[in-house]
Amino acid sequence: MNVSRRAALICAAALAAGLQATPALAADAWPSRPIHFVVPFGPGGANDLLARAAADGASKVLGQPIVVDNKPGAGAVLGTDIVAKAQPDGYTFLISAAGVISNSMIRKVPYKDTDLVPVAMIGLAPSVIIVPANSPYKDLKEFVAASKQGAGLHFSTAGIGSTPHFIEGLLTTRYGAKLDLVPYKSGGESVAAVLGSQVDATSEASIVVLPSVKAGKLKALATTWTKRIAAYPELPTAVEQGFDEVRFAHWAGVHAPAGTPQAILDRMADAVDKAMKDPATVKRVTDMGIEPVGGTRASFVKFVDEERARLGSVVKATGMKDE
To answer: What is the largest CA-CA distance in the chain?
Structure first.
């Protein structure tokens, strides 16, 4: 072998080795600059508030600032697409929600579900089924029974594929409720319709509706998560009232672009878990009606897989589709 050819082969081997080592080196040095959490909703909602709580706590663990960027639009598709197409370098993460799991089932999206990978669960705001303060129904059982009489009742949602839409879908397909769906553009508009007695009911995140419930402006019929809300323990769950499959919450987790080094994913999951177990953070979010969760990457992957299957069954049963 001549000298020039040998030199070329040595250079090629060195270059290949360097390329293979790049992800490991990047992971070892991570994080060396601010990290971004992209929230695919506007500020002030449960997803945004959970993102900020996680960002504050995780930044202390990781030693770098975490910036929360709100990128609302198209039912969370806009923000999700930004992260799906971001560099998988550990500096851009998505604050995911149920809509991120179900969007591809009900509408065309510019990315593939496999473009994102689950990292960590942050926490959840249990959904609360609410009616006007002067409504005659004292619980969910009475409401569903009344809906089966005559023309039925009106149930507002925050749009096609929103958590309230899934709750309405379950109540109608699994429990025989007769509900006329009234979609609004946002959860705020949907709740306002109940406050103004323009519709009979809706469901929305605990953090959004509990202040009005406690002030007597709305009446709560049930929480739709698996346990009672720490900030409002007198409200029974839908499961307690016989609606075993009505288990929904406005949850928030962390997803990353596919291809992000495993070491980075593990470190971010650990940082979020520690953040959501910090006593100050726990008090901060539970006082607002939010339940901190945290946990391992494996537990969040399992949750996402189960949620995808569960939401998919509702989509199929209801024919849910964004025209």
So the answer is: 93
pLDDT digits over 32-46, tens only?
999 999 999 888 777
Question: Across the chain, what does the average pLDDT equal?
Answer: 89
Under a CB-based contact definition with an 8 Å cutoff, are residues 36 and 66 in contact?
A: yes
pLDDT digits (tens, 9 = 90+) for 231-278: 899 999 999 999 999 998 889 999 999 999 999 999 999 999 999 999
Name, in order, each residue with C-beta under 8 angstroms of 162's C-beta and a sequence gap of 6 or more: 75, 99, 187
d(CA 81, CA 189): 25
Contact between 144 and 177 (Cβ < 8 Å) = yes
CATH of 127-223, one of 3.40.50.300, 2.60.40.10, 3.40.190.10, 3.30.70.330: 3.40.190.10
Burial (CB count within 10 angstroms: exposed 0-12, middle 13-18, buried 19+), residue 194? buried
**Token duo for residue 47:** 């997803």
From CA 144, how far away is CA 147, in angstroms rounded?
5
Q: Which of 46, 43, 41 is nearest to 77 (CA)?
A: 41
Q: Chain centroid to CA 304: how far?
A: 10
CATH architecture designation of domain 33-125+249-318 = 3-Layer(aba) Sandwich (3.40)
What angle do helix axes 77-84 and 98-106 make, rounded to 10 degrees?
Answer: 100
Is the per-residue pLDDT at 106 higher than 50?
yes
d(CA 275, CA 279): 9
Phi/psi-derived region of residue 99, left when phi > 0, alpha when psi is between -120 and 50, beta in every other case: alpha
pLDDT band, residue 223 (cuts 50/70/90): very high
Number of C-alpha atoms within 13 angstroms, CB side, residue 62? 32
